[in-house]
Amino acid sequence: MVTAPLTLRDVSESELLRRIFPFFRASPGVAVGPGDDAAVLRTGPGTVATTDSMIRGRDWLDEWSGASDVATKLLTQNLADVAAMGARSTAVLVTLVADPATPLDWAVDFARTLGEQAADLGVAVAGGDLSSAPDGVLMVSITALGDLDGRAPVLRSGARVGDVVAVCGPLGRSAAGLALLQSGADPRTQPDGIRGWCIEHHLRPQAPLTEGPAAADAGATAMIDLSDGLLRDGHRVAGASGVRLALSPTALHGDVAELEPVVGEQALDCVLAGGEEHSLLATFTGAAPDGWRTIGVVEAGEGVTLDGAVQQPRGWDHFRA
Amino acid sequence: MVTAPLTLRDVSESELLRRIFPFFRASPGVAVGPGDDAAVLRTGPGTVATTDSMIRGRDWLDEWSGASDVATKLLTQNLADVAAMGARSTAVLVTLVADPATPLDWAVDFARTLGEQAADLGVAVAGGDLSSAPDGVLMVSITALGDLDGRAPVLRSGARVGDVVAVCGPLGRSAAGLALLQSGADPRTQPDGIRGWCIEHHLRPQAPLTEGPAAADAGATAMIDLSDGLLRDGHRVAGASGVRLALSPTALHGDVAELEPVVGEQALDCVLAGGEEHSLLATFTGAAPDGWRTIGVVEAGEGVTLDGAVQQPRGWDHFRA
């Protein structure tokens, strides 16, 4: 006899909470954790706060991504934004808005991965929200909070003429992974070569989280999380700072060459316009620190150039894509 | 010639942000507001954080609620949770996850109301997230942050035998308003009598936000935002505190009598089990302060009683409702 898997409809809200709260470990930074009207956090004088959401059918497909993958990607997206301010993530609030027909296992797997990975990163899951959604809808969201530990925040607006432009983390892998999946690659491809690394980076991205505060300490003048593509996010830094980012094709050659065996002629486009990479882009007065590679310089002007040619801000736009 | 109203698809993400950012006013508590990777808030040592979402079709119907109504309700839900900890709300992050076919006016009206009402309450809109959703989906979410201003948080777990149980704000009006709307009442009914007050409270609830910190200062031992019904939320306080809340039918008589002309025999049920009220329930050692009315006492035992009879925790359950 086969029994149907349990869904959220089969358990009460309090029963669901009883199943997932144990995944959210206590933390010294959290005075009151999940279960009251709100969480209470022990905070310093400068708290960084950001929020990002994912919805099934736009931000992931169940055919490619399980609950654990979604938890990893959502956590990385949010924590990368905190890191890009030069801050250390301390706590997250998590929201699940789900059709009651959603498998209970999905919610439990999501919560387990979120709790485990957050704990590994020293981040507390301090609270959240559970709500029901119409048929077929599954949406998850995180708000991440971070501590500047006394640093000044690193804004998008601080780049100055003469600074170097540098990146920490890969470029274009997520977009190349997406292209592979769209052309039929198995999402379970083992990450033991560039094709696998690209798929892995698309489904379960990791960001250089500790490099954000380290870059702030090293004097980064501007910083951004690369979520919508190098050109689009580069334009954001250029626009906010009132400068031009002049990128060097030579410096990007290695990134492009790495992806050519994966996506052929699309490699340059992945590097320049691929979203969801969650590497960090920053500008520094003087040399970039270890772990970063210089890809250009800050010039007077506006926008982004490649080998001197003006580049349009291609990349991900939520409502027009 | 009639032109179709603009939708989110007709503008870029940056153009939409340019239209809504002006509604979010600067605040001394916000060092970095919307537009960077994350907001930066000036915080005290104890920061309260909570999040709550609303999705079209479950939490509101377009036939009854416009974008401005949704903004009001979402803001109240979140700020009431902060108040129920004894804290003063300082900032919110706001998320809009929308089908690109959503009218641009909806997003603009939502942001305008949110910005105006937050400003009136001394709360900054510090940041947020815009994302696209599959066809027909419209979801909004807020994360609210608050400052305890040196107070200890008022938890659900602090009620002690001998305390009085008190409420600040109405009971059952939101549920009675919902019942009226479900039986065909005009959502634009003027709020100049009890029927109108009920509809108003369901569509555009206000919460006694300043009474939360005031209750904390007056020695509240436990407190909760009444979002899921007096019995269900009362059970939460009872369970967390290891006590029984013994409610007095005499004390609730006025609440019931007020709603009888509106919903007849359902009046008691609205008072006991009606959700989305966003009044505050608290326990006090000694008399409740001005502005609160005593509705019972804390006894040894468990659960909630009415006139000595044990009450089941009826009320809203997200996945079973």
Automatic annotation (TrEMBL), chains A, B:
Reaction(s) catalysed by this chain, per the record, are: thiamine phosphate + ATP = thiamine diphosphate + ADP
- In Gene Ontology terms, what is one molecular function of this protein? magnesium ion binding
What UniProt keywords are attached to this protein's entry? ATP-binding, Kinase, Magnesium, Metal-binding, Nucleotide-binding, Thiamine biosynthesis, Transferase
Q: Which CDD domains match?
A: ThiL
Annotated residues for binding of ATP? 128-129, 156, 227
One biological process term from GO is: thiamine diphosphate biosynthetic process
Q: Where does Mg(2+) 1 bind?
A: 51-52, 129
Q: Where does Mg(2+) 3 bind?
A: 37, 81, 225
What InterPro entries does the record tag this protein with?
PurM-like_C_sf (IPR036676), PurM-like_N (IPR016188), PurM-like_N_sf (IPR036921), ThiL-like (IPR006283)
- List of residues binding Mg(2+) 5: 228
- Annotated substrate binding sites: 59, 276, 316
Under Enzyme Commission nomenclature, its number is 2.7.4.16
The Swiss-Prot or TrEMBL record describes its family as follows: Belongs to the thiamine-monophosphate kinase family.
Extra information: Reaction mechanism of ThiL seems to utilize a direct, inline transfer of the gamma-phosphate of ATP to TMP rather than a phosphorylated enzyme intermediate.
Tell me the protein's name.
Thiamine-monophosphate kinase
Which organism is this entry from? Pedococcus dokdonensis
Per the record, the gene is thiL
